[in-house]
Amino acid sequence: MKYLVFDEISKADWDKVVANIDVHNEERKKGNLPPYVIADHILHGDLPQFTQPIRSFKIYDTDDPQ
């Protein structure tokens, strides 16, 4: 099953994610994280429900919604 996921993150937290991107990639290779159908794409428009400056979406292919 495919899941469309919207994310938002602050600039300070984004720096932490980027610093640990290799760890996330290794976990994905080991199968501990679901595979992407479409990896992160940044949303450049304003959406009223989002409060953080960096907004993105991705699509996962997994049978586990969590």
Helix content: 25-40%
Low-confidence stretches: none
Distance between the termini: 12 Å
Mean pLDDT: 88
* Percent in strands: 35-45%
Tell me the radius of gyration. 13 Å
Tally of helical runs: 2
Strand order of the largest sheet: 1-3-2
Please provide a written account of the structure.
The chain is an alpha+beta fold and 66 residues long. The protein has two helices and three strands. The protein has a three-stranded antiparallel sheet with strand order 1-3-2. The longest helix has 10 residues, at 21-30. The two termini are 12 Å apart. The model has no long low-confidence stretch (mean pLDDT 88).
Give the secondary structure arrangement, pairings included:
Layout: E1 2-9, H1 11-19, H2 21-30, E2 36-43, E3 54-61
Antiparallel strand pairs: 1-3, 2-3
Characteristics:
2 helices; single chain; flat; alpha+beta; three-stranded antiparallel beta sheet
In short:
It is built from two helices and three strands; from the N terminus they run βααββ.
